[in-house]
TrEMBL record:
It comes from Virgisporangium ochraceum. It comes from the Bacteria. This is PH domain-containing protein. Residues 374-394 are annotated as: Disordered. The chain crosses the membrane at residues 42-63, 215-235, 241-266, 409-426, 432-453. The keyword Membrane applies. Residues 385-394 have a biased composition (Acidic residues). Keywords: Membrane, Transmembrane, Transmembrane helix.
């Protein structure tokens, strides 16, 4: 295991600190060289006195060493807190747990609550030294297993390593020394995990397939839902202000409704693609972390829809459950949306075995559909251990990240369209132009934030291919 801090995070932090320091320097230069009042100079001095130490601490954090290698011999740790090699026999335990504030009053096992990886409640790794072993630094906490002194080495959000992969690889290396006290990373006893579907290569092809279709949908949305209604609103406003207001209201309603419809077309398919799933008794558990959904397979609402029957899901057969209004809600992909190929034969048979015992006829009908799908499924094939990791832990796709940079350009085109509408109505209908200006300003803020997200993803793909794509150790 090679644990590293995210280079992209360090680069972004250094850029932010550089901009902050340059801004403070420019403010100080202007106020102390111009004939500024003493009150302004005092305020500038206070700002600089805060910014400079803040930037120093931030740069120290960004440039500090963080290299941790784990293998069969032990740990090679190079961080600001600890710099030494630690053999396995020098450790009594290695514990993954939430901070006490997020794991109950005493941080003990059993009181841990599911939480996300990010934020203050992110799982942290604790090294518990064996008796008589001195790691050279003071303990920073206690083990939630037995209360012994422990050193917090890092939080999971400090390293570029998927949490499911981390638990799998570390448990293989540490053996009985490893204790996982994170509820959201613990499989329910007796649960049967299903294979990831589609697998990594098929999921990548599916993602690109969905991207092409989303591009076509976006072009249609831009012409029919945004550009054309805005053009009609501009013409109406230049003819008469009241008529322009009515047209603007109609355009707002149509744009909001059309946008919501467009966003929902492929969202469900993307969210179900490669979602982790397991069978726990009569329940199907889907999702990961603190977003696990439970579906009762013995419910009378369970159905199987044939391929192509659901818009936005391509040729996929789906396991669905009807909501209170009777509308089917997809729960699990049974075949590939792109090709229609069924998922793993063993998974289909395991689902059918549970549904076959359902007290409702709809469940038994679903079992027969699954048996028919399993009969046409290809035989099981050797699988890479990484094939069953969540899609969120796949290596960053550089091609996908580059294609993703087109989305800020498309959003920028939408902002420019609204700004053009404001310019065309500025003289004829100032109130309508003001609404367009406010809308364009809000969209500009959204565009800026979204652009930063896309640039960060591209930076991850460029700067961390070796750490994100490191092949894990097999158990």
């Amino acid at each position: 295991m090679k644990l590293r801090a995210s280079p992209a995070t360090r680069v972004f932090l250094l850029l932010f600190l550089a901009v902050l320091l340059a801004s403070a320097a420019g403010l100080g230069w202007r106020l102390f060289t111009d004939d500024a009042p003493w009150s302004g100079r005092i305020i500038a001095a206070a700002v600089i006195a805060f910014v400079v130490p803040f930037c120093f601490v931030g740069a120290r954090h960004a440039l500090g060493p963080f290299r941790i290698d784990v293998d069969e011999r032990g740990w090679r740790v190079r961080t600001r807190r600890l710099t030494r090699d630690v053999r396995w026999d020098e450790l009594a335990a290695v514990v993954l747990a939430h901070s006490p504030a997020h794991a109950g009053t005493d941080g003990s096992a059993g009181t841990a609550v599911p939480t996300s990886r990010r934020g203050p409640g992110a799982p942290r790794l604790l090294l518990v030294p064996a008796d008589g072993v001195d790691l050279g630094v003071e303990a920073t906490g206690s083990s939630p297993v037995d209360g012994r002194p422990a050193l917090e080495l890092f939080a999971l959000d400090d390293v570029v390593y998927g949490e499911v992969r981390f638990v799998r690889d570390l448990s293989a290396l540490a053996g009985g020394r490893f204790h996982n006290r994170c509820a959201h990373l613990t499989r329910p006893p007796g649960a049967t995990p299903l294979h990831r579907f589609p697998d990594r290569s098929a999921h990548l092809r599916l993602t690109r397939w969905l991207g092409l279709r989303e591009t076509g949908v976006f072009l249609g949305w831009y012409v029919l839902v945004l550009a054309l209604p805005l053009a009609l609103t501009v013409l109406a406003a230049r003819w008469d202000v009241l008529l322009g207001v009515l047209a603007l209201l109609a355009t707002a309603v149509a744009t909001i409704a059309g946008t919501a419809t467009v966003l929902s077309i492929f969202h469900g398919c993307r969210s179900l693609a490669a979602v982790p799933a397991m069978i726990d008794g009569r329940e199907l558990l889907t999702g990961h972390g603190d977003a696990i959904a439970r579906t009762d397979l013995h419910s009378e609402r369970i159905r199987v829809t044939p391929g192509g029957a659901r818009a936005g899901y391509g040729r996929a057969s789906l396991l669905v459950t009807a909501n209170d209004a009777g509308r089917p809600s997809p729960v699990l992909l049974l075949s590939d949306p792109r090709t229609g190929d069924p998922r793993d034969r063993d998974d289909l048979r395991a689902l059918a075995a549970v549904l076959r015992d359902s007290p409702h006829g709809t469940g038994r009908d679903a079992a027969r559909h699954l048996d028919a799908l399993a009969a046409g499924a290809p035989p099981p094939r050797p699988r890479d251990p990484d094939d069953d990791l969540p899609a969120s832990e796949d290596p960053v796709d550089l091609r996908g990240a580059l294609a993703g940079m087109l989305r800020p350009l498309a959003l920028g085109g939408c902002v420019a369209t609204v700004a053009a509408a404001a310019a065309l109505t500025y003289d004829a209908a100032p109130p309508i132009a003001a609404i367009f200006i406010v809308t364009a300003s809000v969209l500009t803020g959204v565009w800026f934030i979204y652009t930063l997200i896309c640039v960060r993803r591209l930076a991850d793909a460029v700067l961390t291919p070796s750490t994100r794509a490191t092949r894990p150790l097999e158990p």
